[in-house]
Automatic annotation (TrEMBL), chains A, B:
<dbReference type="InterPro" id="IPR036390">
    <property type="entry name" value="WH_DNA-bd_sf"/>
</dbReference>
<keyword id="KW-0378">Hydrolase</keyword>
<dbReference type="InterPro" id="IPR054105">
    <property type="entry name" value="WHD_NrtR"/>
</dbReference>
<feature type="domain" description="Nudix hydrolase">
    <location>
        <begin position="16"/>
        <end position="160"/>
    </location>
</feature>
<dbReference type="InterPro" id="IPR036388">
    <property type="entry name" value="WH-like_DNA-bd_sf"/>
</dbReference>
<dbReference type="Pfam" id="PF21906">
    <property type="entry name" value="WHD_NrtR"/>
</dbReference>
<dbReference type="InterPro" id="IPR015797">
    <property type="entry name" value="NUDIX_hydrolase-like_dom_sf"/>
</dbReference>
<dbReference type="InterPro" id="IPR020084">
    <property type="entry name" value="NUDIX_hydrolase_CS"/>
</dbReference>
<dbReference type="GO" id="GO:0016779">
    <property type="term" value="F:nucleotidyltransferase activity"/>
</dbReference>
<dbReference type="InterPro" id="IPR020476">
    <property type="entry name" value="Nudix_hydrolase"/>
</dbReference>
<dbReference type="InterPro" id="IPR000086">
    <property type="entry name" value="NUDIX_hydrolase_dom"/>
</dbReference>
<comment type="similarity">
    <text>Belongs to the Nudix hydrolase family.</text>
</comment>
<keyword id="KW-0548">Nucleotidyltransferase</keyword>
<keyword id="KW-0808">Transferase</keyword>
<dbReference type="GO" id="GO:0016787">
    <property type="term" value="F:hydrolase activity"/>
</dbReference>
<protein>
    <submittedName>
        <fullName>Bifunctional NMN adenylyltransferase/Nudix hydrolase</fullName>
    </submittedName>
</protein>
<dbReference type="Pfam" id="PF00293">
    <property type="entry name" value="NUDIX"/>
</dbReference>
Length: 249, 249
DNA sequence: ACAAAAGTGTTGCGCGTACACCCATGT
DNA sequence: ACATGGGTGTACGCGCAACACTTTTGT
């Protein structure tokens, strides 16, 4: 710790810390949750799949770095990248998480509607949407980061309006429901979901105009836009798993 | 960003980043929420109150640094500091948050039962428990960190068993309820709170033995210990306030 | 006697769940 | 005609807010 240093910081504090951002980018594609991965072109873990990310620039906040890397390393258009919902997840700082040097990484979670196929950019060999759960072991501690990100997204769907971030500007309630079903991995009751969403003020806002077909079949659905609310009161809890039993007999 | 570098990282990535931890330590004292603050002995902000914290050592994770600083800079005994519940909050990385150099800070939240008065240690002139809300403007961006920490703790009380971290090993349900009341700033209905807690499996575990007096008055209360559960299903929602704001930055 | 805090009982309403049912469109 | 998805209606039951009430201690 910095002890009796009259002015300035302890020089030992200036060990070569590198600061990076890592991104867990989720999207929905054909009703399945996908995550954006890049194939590393450099050692360590050359050829392994990893989360996109990179170093902070000298006068750049971690959030700004995350948005820049999102555009650069994935080849998504600047407009597409700017529309993504970006949120800090947590920071990973284990001394041995990078075998070569000390790297502290601030992880971010990004969400977006059905997105175009990315191209590898920067030092990545390739970039691809991979169905969540189908990815092999990732480089560094990225498996843990991805798991944390998925858990966080699932939890935030319960008590925030985050789900609209997965949807295009105009969407149907069926599409919104599929966000929940894809992330949580459970089917939801359609009528109840509809009522719950519409009963939450500011969650969605109806769009004037004709309905739209969704899956090519069925009755055309009314369109909605994201509202201005940010929190859900009361929350939309995921269905209780069968394992837990309550003793209220 | 690191572009075509055949091996090793881009040298520009090694800008002098310093990595620190900052701590928002809460406790309950006379039924009021208090925060641990230190008075800075060094510039910048010499003499101003601030959150305790310090630099990461070369081979130390942020969590380890947080626990070390907690003991060192506050003068709390090692045993006391080890008992505190410690949890990562988020990372603050604005390039201008420290006027002299680039400092990225990983903030932590710590909770503990009624704690002894701390002594200033390290480079702090003084260390003190300050009633939450009564602190003046803090150094750096610590006002924002403290506000985020308080919001996070309040939210986590709703859906986790975090409240027991504010209590000594053995506590009464009245003491547990005062945790909620102090953090949320609202009174709760005693009978309903009791039923809710006891109906949640694993939240608390009764202790064999005689009851204990709490405030010196009233009927002695049964004692409980923290259970092994970590999450609350269903959550214990705070009473509907007129309105609440969310800060997503 | 009174105050203060623990603990028990009871009632009513709201919301969530689980359905049944009709509507509109494509094949 | 049938499948598919959107949208409406409804009934049951749990959870919880809201009290009223008893018990046990200190002053």
């Amino acid at each position: 710790m910095p002890a009796q240093v009259p002015s300035g910081y302890d020089p030992r504090a200036f060990e070569p810390f590198a600061v990076t951002v890592d991104l867990a980018v989720f999207t929905l594609w054909e009703n399945r949750l996908h995550v954006l991965l890049v194939r590393r072109g450099e050692d360590p873990h050359r050829g392994r799949w990893a989360l996109p990310g990179g170093f902070l620039q000298p006068r750049e906040s971690a959030g700004a770095a995350a948005r820049r890397e999102l555009a650069e390393e994935t080849g998504l258009s600047a407009a597409t990248a700017a529309d993504l919902h970006l949120e800090q997840l947590r920071t990973y700082s284990d001394p041995d998480r990078d075998p070569r040097m000390r790297v502290v990484s601030v992880a971010y979670t990004a969400l977006g509607p059905g997105l175009p196929e990315p191209r590898g950019g920067g030092d990545a060999l390739d970039a691809r949407w991979v169905p969540h759960g189908a990815q092999g072991p990732l480089a560094f501690d990225h498996d843990a980061i991805l798991a944390d990100a998925h858990e966080r997204v699932g939890a935030k769907l319960e008590y925030t309006c985050l789900a609209t971030a997965f949807c295009p500007p105009e969407f149907t309630l069926g599409e919104l429901r599929q966000v929940y079903e894809a992330v949580w991995g459970v089917p939801l009751d359609r009528p109840n979901f509809r009522r719950k969403v519409l009963a939450t003020p500011g969650f969605v806002r109806p769009v004037e105009g004709p309905p739209r077909l969704t899956g090519g079949r069925g009755k055309p659905a009314a369109l909605y836009r994201a509202g201005d609310a940010t929190a859900l009161h009361p929350p939309l809890l995921r269905p209780a798993r069968p394992e837990r039993r309550e003793t209220t007999a």
